[in-house]
Amino acid sequence: MENLHDKRKVYEKSQLIESEIKQNPIEQFRDWFLEASENPGISEANAMAISTLEEDGCPRTRMVLLKAYTHEGFIFYTNYDSRKGKAIEKNHKACLHFFWPMLERQIIIKADLEKIAGNLSDGYFHSRPKGSQLGAVVSPQSQVIPNREFLEEKLKELEKQFESDEIPRPENWGGYIAKPYEIEFWQGRPNRLHDRLIYQLEDLDWKISRLAP
């Protein structure tokens, strides 16, 4: 057994104080996200973990990329027939998680998920590089495939087929919007006395509370 008892880090880069935060969590997210995006040590500030509930009752977590956020929520894209898509279809709740070690910050978001309008998915799909569009068509995401060559051969076929034509968005590929009802902002602090402020939606207003670390 490897002993990890001494793997410790001192958190002292910032603080999270009630008098300095935004009253709306999306605005607070925007401020933190912009800081993360501008930090040279963070290559993908929009990388987030999303956890959904599987049929066996066990949560499953994977990394996806946030592609937009609005006052309503957080938008990402996926294959609707994937494991995450099927899990969302049965249970519309999910947990999103951002972790930015360089800033000693994390954000935990509990949300209800909905598919976005088809025309919005169309717009984003056709804004992607052609290779990414073909990849979405080629991959039967989460399904068992015989080997790597299966994908590569299928890709070659589609490259020829759509060499000069627009690639239609697959009906089983598109976006979700995660509409938050709880958002926790975590800031590392010395002596493990971290700052944790949680926004909880009550009717149409956000209630802000401090949690013990």
UniProtKB/TrEMBL annotation:
<feature type="domain" description="Pyridoxamine 5'-phosphate oxidase N-terminal">
    <location>
        <begin position="42"/>
        <end position="159"/>
    </location>
</feature>
<comment type="subunit">
    <text>Homodimer.</text>
</comment>
<feature type="binding site">
    <location>
        <position position="186"/>
    </location>
    <ligand>
        <name>FMN</name>
    </ligand>
</feature>
<feature type="binding site">
    <location>
        <position position="83"/>
    </location>
    <ligand>
        <name>FMN</name>
    </ligand>
</feature>
<keyword id="KW-0285">Flavoprotein</keyword>
<protein>
    <recommendedName>
        <fullName>Pyridoxine/pyridoxamine 5'-phosphate oxidase</fullName>
        <ecNumber>1.4.3.5</ecNumber>
    </recommendedName>
</protein>
<feature type="binding site">
    <location>
        <position position="132"/>
    </location>
    <ligand>
        <name>substrate</name>
    </ligand>
</feature>
<feature type="binding site">
    <location>
        <position position="67"/>
    </location>
    <ligand>
        <name>substrate</name>
    </ligand>
</feature>
<feature type="binding site">
    <location>
        <position position="124"/>
    </location>
    <ligand>
        <name>substrate</name>
    </ligand>
</feature>
<dbReference type="GO" id="GO:0004733">
    <property type="term" value="F:pyridoxamine phosphate oxidase activity"/>
</dbReference>
<dbReference type="InterPro" id="IPR019740">
    <property type="entry name" value="Pyridox_Oxase_CS"/>
</dbReference>
<dbReference type="InterPro" id="IPR019576">
    <property type="entry name" value="Pyridoxamine_oxidase_dimer_C"/>
</dbReference>
<feature type="domain" description="Pyridoxine 5'-phosphate oxidase dimerisation C-terminal">
    <location>
        <begin position="173"/>
        <end position="213"/>
    </location>
</feature>
<keyword id="KW-0664">Pyridoxine biosynthesis</keyword>
<keyword id="KW-0288">FMN</keyword>
<dbReference type="InterPro" id="IPR012349">
    <property type="entry name" value="Split_barrel_FMN-bd"/>
</dbReference>
<feature type="binding site">
    <location>
        <begin position="192"/>
        <end position="194"/>
    </location>
    <ligand>
        <name>substrate</name>
    </ligand>
</feature>
<feature type="binding site">
    <location>
        <begin position="141"/>
        <end position="142"/>
    </location>
    <ligand>
        <name>FMN</name>
    </ligand>
</feature>
<feature type="binding site">
    <location>
        <position position="84"/>
    </location>
    <ligand>
        <name>FMN</name>
    </ligand>
</feature>
<feature type="binding site">
    <location>
        <position position="106"/>
    </location>
    <ligand>
        <name>FMN</name>
    </ligand>
</feature>
<comment type="pathway">
    <text>Cofactor metabolism; pyridoxal 5'-phosphate salvage; pyridoxal 5'-phosphate from pyridoxamine 5'-phosphate: step 1/1.</text>
</comment>
<dbReference type="InterPro" id="IPR000659">
    <property type="entry name" value="Pyridox_Oxase"/>
</dbReference>
<feature type="binding site">
    <location>
        <begin position="77"/>
        <end position="78"/>
    </location>
    <ligand>
        <name>FMN</name>
    </ligand>
</feature>
<comment type="pathway">
    <text>Cofactor metabolism; pyridoxal 5'-phosphate salvage; pyridoxal 5'-phosphate from pyridoxine 5'-phosphate: step 1/1.</text>
</comment>
<feature type="binding site">
    <location>
        <begin position="62"/>
        <end position="67"/>
    </location>
    <ligand>
        <name>FMN</name>
    </ligand>
</feature>
<comment type="function">
    <text>Catalyzes the oxidation of either pyridoxine 5'-phosphate (PNP) or pyridoxamine 5'-phosphate (PMP) into pyridoxal 5'-phosphate (PLP).</text>
</comment>
<comment type="similarity">
    <text>Belongs to the pyridoxamine 5'-phosphate oxidase family.</text>
</comment>
<dbReference type="InterPro" id="IPR011576">
    <property type="entry name" value="Pyridox_Oxase_N"/>
</dbReference>
<dbReference type="Pfam" id="PF01243">
    <property type="entry name" value="PNPOx_N"/>
</dbReference>
<dbReference type="Pfam" id="PF10590">
    <property type="entry name" value="PNP_phzG_C"/>
</dbReference>
<feature type="binding site">
    <location>
        <position position="128"/>
    </location>
    <ligand>
        <name>substrate</name>
    </ligand>
</feature>
<keyword id="KW-0560">Oxidoreductase</keyword>
<feature type="binding site">
    <location>
        <position position="196"/>
    </location>
    <ligand>
        <name>FMN</name>
    </ligand>
</feature>
